[in-house]
Design brief:
Layout: E1 3-9, E2 12-17, E3 20-28, E4 34-38, H1 49-57, E5 61-66, H2 82-96, E6 101-106, H3 108-119, E7 124-130, H4 144-149, H5 153-166, H6 174-187, E8 203-208, H7 215-224, E9 228-233, H8 239-242, H9 244-256
Parallel strand pairs: 4-5, 4-6, 6-7, 7-8, 8-9
Antiparallel strand pairs: 1-2, 2-3, 3-5
Helix pairs in contact: 2-3
GO molecular function, one term: hydrolase activity
Domain AB hydrolase-1: 35-248
Keywords: Hydrolase
């Protein structure tokens, strides 16, 4: 899909992909291998702020698109679904890049990245999936998702504040995005793990030791991937922001080369 480039806003550029208008960050080394950073629910490219400089300094071209209804990207009229988000991401990859890209997906972005690899593996190099379950059996109880679903006032106020900062749809549209996101995370993701056998892209699955995901589920995900590797790091669900000094070198080393099966 071709993209029409529009104006630059807040350090990123708007692209028109078909009937959608997407904001993205494009930095680092323009000639470097591309790595595409995929954000989570209620989030934006800003959540990767602790990675931009390090990834760019490592010689990578760093791209961070904001999905429809997130960050600077306007919403669309359809309900949110992971398949639609993956299709939008595929359109983005085809429009912006002429070669495979590494995908690093955090939270909901991990589901999106995995679906891209399942659908269009030739667009993907290596993949990193961070802090996400892939069906409801892997979800821990009593996490911040439960606070969202319960419409906890403090949690909703925080999410609304982040939304209002960047959204071109205006503060009045937040309730629509909230309802669409709640419907999404209530029903999805719901991927049978045996389907992961079709994903042959080298994949590193990362979980914090205090995450929204059951560790047993993450181990099952890694075992289901033909080329899956596992890393469990100390921290919380916002691991890339809390511990970039640990997270960034791990990601960069994995994207550069496959670690040995065992140390001599």
């Amino acid at each position: 899909m071709d993209a029409n480039t529009e104006e630059t806003v807040d350090g990123g550029t708007y692209l028109t992909l078909g009937h959608r208008r997407i904001w993205h960050y494009d930095g680092g080394d323009p000639a470097g291998n591309p790595v595409v950073l995929l954000h989570g629910a209620f989030a934006s490219a800003a959540t990767w702020g602790a990675q931009f400089a390090d990834f760019g300094a490592a010689g990578l071209r760093v791209l961070a698109p904001e999905r429809s209804g997130h960050g600077h990207s306007p919403d669309h009229v359809e309900p949110f679904s992971y398949l639609d988000m993956a299709a939008e991401t595929i359109d983005y990859l085809e429009a912006v890049l002429d070669r495979p890209a590494h995908l690093v997906g955090w939270s909901d972005g991990a589901v999106v990245g995995l679906l891209v690899a399942m659908t269009r593996p030739e667009l993907v190099g290596r993949m990193v999936l961070v802090g996400q379950y892939f069906n409801r059996s892997g979800a821990k109880a009593d996490t911040w998702f439960d606070a969202v679903l319960a419409r906890d006032p403090a949690t909703i106020k925080m999410l609304r504040t982040y939304y209002d900062v960047a959204s071109p749809d205006g503060p009045e549209h937040f309730d629509t995005v909230l309802d669409k996101t709640m419907a999404l995370i209530t029903a999805e993701p719901d991927l049978p793990l045996d389907q992961l056998a079709q994903v042959h892209n080298p994949t590193l699955v990362i979980q914090a030791d205090n995450d929204v995901v059951e560790l047993a589920h993450t181990i099952d995900v890694v075992n289901a991937l033909p080329n899956g590797r596992l890393a469990v790091l100390p921290g919380t669900h916002i691991l890339p922001l809390e511990a970039p000094e640990v997270f960034n070198p791990l990601i960069l080393s994995y994207l550069a080369a496959e670690p040995p099966a065992k140390w001599p």
